[in-house]
Every structure is written in C-alpha cells, then in structure tokens.
Amino acid sequence: MNGVYKAFWLDENDHLVVLDQRVLPFIESSVTITNTKECVEAIKNMTVRGAGVIGNVAAFGVYLGARECTSDLAQLIQKAQLIRASRPTAVNLMWAVDRMIEVAKKSSKEMMLEALKEEAIKISDEDCLRSRRIGELGADIFEEIMRQKGQKSINVLTHCNAGWLAIVDEGSALAPIYEAHKRGIDIHVWVDETRPRNQGANLTAWELAKAGIKHTVIADNTGGHLMQHQQVDVCITGADRVSRGGDAANKIGTYLKALAAFDNQIPFYIALPLSTFDFTIVDGVKDIEIEIRDEDEVKFIRGLDKQGEYTKVQIVQDVSKALNYGFDVTPARLITGLITDRGVCQANIEAIEAMCEDLL
User: Fold this and answer.
1) Closest CA to 273 of 329, 225, 338
2) Any residues with CB less than 8 A from the CB of 357 and at least 6 apart, and which?
3) Is the dihedral of CA 182, 183, 187, 191 positive or negative?
4) How many Å separate Cα 9 from the centre of its chain?
5) Number of Cβ within a 10 Å radius of residue 112
6) 100: Cβ–Cβ under 8 A, 6 or more apart, which residues?
7) What SS3 state is found at 153?
8) What are the strands, taking DSSP E only, across the chain?
9) What is the CATH number of domain 133-359?
10) Domain coordinates of the chain in residue numbers?
11) What is the pLDDT of residue 3?
C-alpha cells in the first residue's frame, strides 16, 4: 500500500499513474494524471472506472488540485467540485471528495499538501482492508453453499467488473472469488460480457486469467438459461451505490440477473464497502440518479482486427438512435444479502441501520 496499488500508484514525482482500463485486455498501458482537469477526464472517459477506484482516484485528484493552486482553499474547493461532478452514480466519488475537503479545511496552508496526500493514501489503504474482509466473508458463503448442496466445486456468475480494477486491491464481487481460489476451492466463474463496454469480457476475464481462475465468458443474455439448468450456484456483483433501504445500483443488466436468480431460487449477493452506501436515499429505484452515457458506446465496439491491430468498429447504422443507460437498480427484495466489510446483512432498512448505526 503506501500509495502503490495494482490499478494506480504515485510515481517519483507524486503524480498519479493509472492503468488505462479502456484498452485492456489487449494493451497494458498507463496514463499519468498531474492535475484536476486530467483527473476529471480520466474518470469521465473511463480510463479508470469502478466505484472504489473512482473514489480513490478522486481523492488523489484533490491532492493534485491542491498542488496546482498552491493550497488555496477557495480555489481547491472549486476544483474539487469539478471532480465531484465528473460522474453522477457512484457515491464513493462524492464521499471521497467530501472527506478530502474536510481535511483541507482543518489544515493550515503550509501543511495542507502533506495532509491531503496522507488522507488519499489512507482512503485507499482502508479500501484495501475492506476488500480483504469482503473476500473472507464471501468465501465463507461459497463454502456454506457447497456444504449445503453436497458439492466439491462451485459455479459463480458475476456481472461487469468488481475486481481490483474497480475496488483496491482485491475487489468487491471478485474478492470472495480470489479468496476461494486461495483456499483451494474448485471455483469456476461465468463472466457476463457486460455490454456495451464489455467490462466483463475485457476486465473481469483479464483479471481472472492473471490469477489462474477458471472462467467462461458468456453473452449477457445467457445467464438465465444457465440458471434454469442448474449451472449456477450463486450470483455476486458489486455496486456503485446502495440505498439505506438496500436497493443496489450497478452496471446495466444487473437487475435482469437478479430477476432470473430469484425465479430459479439462486442466491444473489451484492458485495460492497461501507463507503458505497448512500444513507440519504431510501428508495433506490426512485431516487438514485442513473447516468446516461454517449450512444457511441452502443453503436461502436473495440477489439483486435485480423491483423492484430486494436481498432474501433461500427455495429449500428448511422440513422438508428441508441440509448445508453450506464446502470440499473436491483430492488432490495431480490437481494439475498449484502456482503460488507462490517459483516453480511439483509438488504432492508432495519438491518442496514442496525449495522451502520454509527454512520447515520
């Protein structure tokens, strides 16, 4: 830790270097962020993505912003608001920026830079520890499912990417998978491709391959069929925001997986650090803002051509419009449980408030 993580790190000049998630798995490259504008661009264009990592990068972005404006608090607050508004759905982003600004307000001008750097590292280090705890609790659930079913292996279905590219340094939904693999459990993962940006096929499969974990990439519409034919034992996803009532916003298509799991009596879990809760919202379906992204993400796809060149290909005709919601909300009634770093709880307001009483 100490400012060095799998998905991003501080270099010798205290610039933030991030893995460019837009070009994985075919190209492994990085982007260096030196100021507020570059931080906002990296979050907006999804050079970095995933609720936790967005929050971590935003925290370091506030530190870089303070360096940019020589620790002028008024200017820093303006810069921080630009970072805070860079994407609307992932609550970790707002939480991290607000936490950094509170530190700035309490710091002298002379000590502000060092205090902000320490706080950004602290936020990321805390996420690392949360991720490990989520992994342990989730792997325990996997083992219990195997015990109940009398199995020596388990098939897990996940949607989008909630590994270390999204939550440092093990992930949320993938953290239990990594932990199960470490325990020697025979685990296989069904990886939804996750259109339109293909985070499952591009990022989750890349992470699992690097870890030597068995996995199969499937088209997004395949999960229900697999569940009907008893080829899925448990579903687990991450979240970008979870309401006080237990509704979970995650990558578009998660709701459909939850419906299929419910219809086939398959456990459906959401894994999240506490920073992903939004206690100001009770009804997530009604009140969580859903980001609408550029229609070109639907109309174009990126990959390797026959010559091995990384390229962009149009798959929808020009005259057709495309609608690109980035997220949907899975109602609490479809969620078996919430796996958090503080424990596993039911997805309802009473259980969440009891677990998080000190945070309300």
Assistant:
1) 338
2) none
3) negative
4) 18
5) 22
6) 58, 59, 62, 63, 80, 116, 119, 120, 123
7) strand
8) 8-10, 16-19, 30-33, 153-158, 186-192, 214-218, 234-237, 241-243, 248-251, 268-271, 277-278, 300-304, 310-314, 327-330, 337-340, 343-345
9) 3.40.50.10470
10) 8-126, 133-359
11) 84
CB 263 within 8 A of CB 270: no
Q: Are 110 and 68 in contact (CB under 8 A)?
A: no
- At residue 48, what is the residue type? V
pLDDT digits (tens, 9 = 90+) for 235-272: 999 999 999 999 999 999 999 999 999 999 999 999 99
Structure tokens at 49: 């993505």
Which among 118, 76, 131 is positioned nearest to 339, based on CA atoms? 131
Any bridge partners for residue 17, and if so which?
9, 32
Closest CA to 158 of 121, 104, 115, 213: 213
Stated length of the chain: 360
* Candidate CATH numbers 1.20.120.420, 1.10.10.10, 1.10.390.10, 1.10.760.10; the one for domain 8-126: 1.20.120.420
Cα–Cα–Cα angle for 105, 51, 155, rounded to 5 degrees: 150
Q: What is the mean pLDDT of residues 88-92?
A: 84
The reported pLDDT for the residue numbered 90 is 77
Q: What is the pLDDT of residue 134?
A: 98
In what order do the strands lie in the sheet containing 8-10? 8-10, 16-19, 30-33
Indicate which residues carry an active-site annotation.
240
Residue 150 to residues 18, 140, 147, 155, 234: CA-CA distances in angstroms? 43, 15, 5, 13, 14
Beta-strand pair 186-192/214-218: parallel
